[in-house]
Design goal:
9-stranded mixed β-sheet; TIM Barrel; 8-stranded parallel beta barrel; alpha/beta; 19 helices
Length: 492
């Protein structure tokens, strides 16, 4: 056969970096508490990318059974399954890899037993150990401790400064470990961590899927713009001040990507709503499904849902998803001009089916009064209302106090543990159309961009305050806020 007629053979080599791409995001280490499988499944639904099975002082046969079940869960959610320390167990379970301490087997020994395609991680505490692990063939580094932790006795704590010092010296992915929680994870990520290792901050949380999601979203803070993607499910406002239009303006101007599912068409302007044309629930579901099966949505925001059927289908759809989506729910009930935007028999269905799925519920005072059937006329009553709404299932509740009187507009956030107060100057103006929609959308955008909840609310509050302050006269009734100038000022 001549050289010219010889068939071409394409040879593809897979560099080690390909194998390491999944070592990023939330790296969960198992604890020794009860209901491990249930809690791990919830955490995986929240976006855990790597699970390390750490089974101290458990019989080998038990570890085989438990480890096999955990591996199946990881396969179901598309997550990596790593075994801590035990090469024999890792080999028997055909785990995706093993994690070694400084006193455990060497990376070379692990590679010999497990094969070339398995992932090998090594715990390190300083630059010398990190460089040695890299030269010995490790695929990623565990580095820490970042902060004090109760999970083990700490003898080395290089912290975030130590992490930043080695980040440019090693090419391997770095998993930061030790005392990491949503409250301090931002500093760890910004110091150079590709992943954060956690135990109790996720597995001991009331809702592990929520805790895992909060950590997962923090990594978006390093993403390019448009940063984060939001699906808004709401009604259309022909006047452009509220609804889908306000949502997409807010999301886009703040630097995120917005997708939409329309629940109703309204013929409205600044003076009120003339008519409402409801969208068939099946078509609403089609809109949601086509977006979520294609686009990498980080946060869902809801506004006007209009009918019991749409509320029910949304609640059912979210429950069916293997992936947990944090949902910012603005319980739109009444338009600024007084028209009802939620059918009367929809309130109870909202309370029972959708409210418990809220990551953040953002009612104003009239909406909260309707949901709780009570009067709210001061800040103490607002605080009590947030606790009651939380007890109904919402993970976090932000009660907006714009309808109260007084010099400042005060909003109250309850996160299940503490009350947080956000205050701003009150502006006496009729240009407030779309404030609720835009505020909730701003918070959703900041969450999707990697801001923790409290900071996302603070930034959203600043945005909406500026949008009201900078509003320009438009229309003959309740005019729109100024999204453009507010976003521009927030950017500065």
């Amino acid at each position: 056969m001549s050289e010219k007629s010889m068939p071409l053979r394409l040879v593809i080599t897979t560099p080690k970096t390909i194998r390491n791409r999944s070592i990023a995001g939330v790296y969960l280490i198992t604890d020794q508490q009860d209901d491990l499988l249930k809690r791990v499944a919830q955490a995986l639904r929240g976006g855990v990318t790597v699970l390390q099975y750490r089974a101290k002082d458990k019989p080998y046969e038990f570890c085989l059974e438990e480890g096999s079940q955990l591996k199946q869960l990881c396969s179901r959610f598309g997550s990596l399954f790593i075994v801590n320390d035990d090469l024999r167990l890792a080999h028997a379970l055909d785990a995706d890899g093993v994690h070694l301490g400084q006193e455990d087997s060497s990376p070379q020994q692990a590679r010999e037993l497990l094969g070339p395609d398995k992932i090998i991680g090594v715990s390190t505490h300083n630059l010398d150990e990190a460089l040695k692990a890299e030269s010995d063939g490790a695929d990623y580094l565990g580095f820490g401790a970042m902060y004090p932790t109760d999970s083990k006795s700490i003898t080395h704590m290089p912290g975030t400064s130590g992490l930043a010092a080695i980040r440019d010296r090693v090419k391997l992915p770095i998993v930061a470990i030790g005392g990491i929680s949503p409250a301090n994870a931002c500093r760890v990520i910004e110091a150079g961590a590709d992943a954060v290792a956690v135990i109790s901050s996720v597995l001991a949380a009331p809702r592990p899927e929520v805790a895992a999601t909060e950590l997962r979203l923090l990594f978006n803070r390093l993403a390019p713009y448009p940063r984060g993607a939001i699906l808004t499910i709401a009604g259309s406002d022909s006047g452009g001040g509220a609804g889908i239009q306000a949502d997409l303006k807010t999301i886009t101007l703040l630097g995120s990507y917005g997708a939409s599912a329309i629940t109703a068409l309204t013929a409205q302007n600044t003076r009120g709503v003339k008519s409402i044309h409801g969208i068939p629930p099946s078509f609403v579901r089609d809109q949601i499904d086509t977006v979520l099966t294609d686009l990498p949505i980080d946060v869902i925001k809801t506004g006007m849902l209009h009918t019991p059927a749409i509320i029910s289908l949304l609640a059912e759809y979210l429950t069916e998803q293997s992936h947990y989506y944090p949902v910012v729910i603005d319980p739109v009930m009444v338009a600024k001009g007084g028209a009802s935007l939620l059918e009367l028999d929809a309130v109870s269905i909202f309370q029972q089916a959708l409210l418990p799925q809220a990551y953040l519920l953002t009612p104003n005072i009239p909406e909260a009064e309707r949901l709780l059937n009570c009067r709210i006329n001061n800040e103490a009553a607002m605080e009590q209302a947030t606790r009651q709404l939380h007890s109904m299932g919402a993970a976090n509740v932000l009660l907006k106090g714009g309808h109260l009187s007084g010099g400042d507009a005060v909003d109250i956030l309850f996160d299940g543990q503490a009350i947080h107060r956000f205050s701003s100057e009150r502006f006496f103006t009729s240009a407030t159309h779309g404030t609720g929609c835009s505020f909730a959308s701003a918070i959703a955008a900041y969450l999707a961009q990697g801001e923790p909840l409290k900071e996302a609310v603070r930034l959203g509050k600043n945005f909406i305050t500026n949008a009201i302050r900078l509003a320009r006269p438009m229309g003959k009734g309740h005019g729109p806020i100024n999204h453009y100038l507010a976003a521009k000022e927030t950017d500065q």
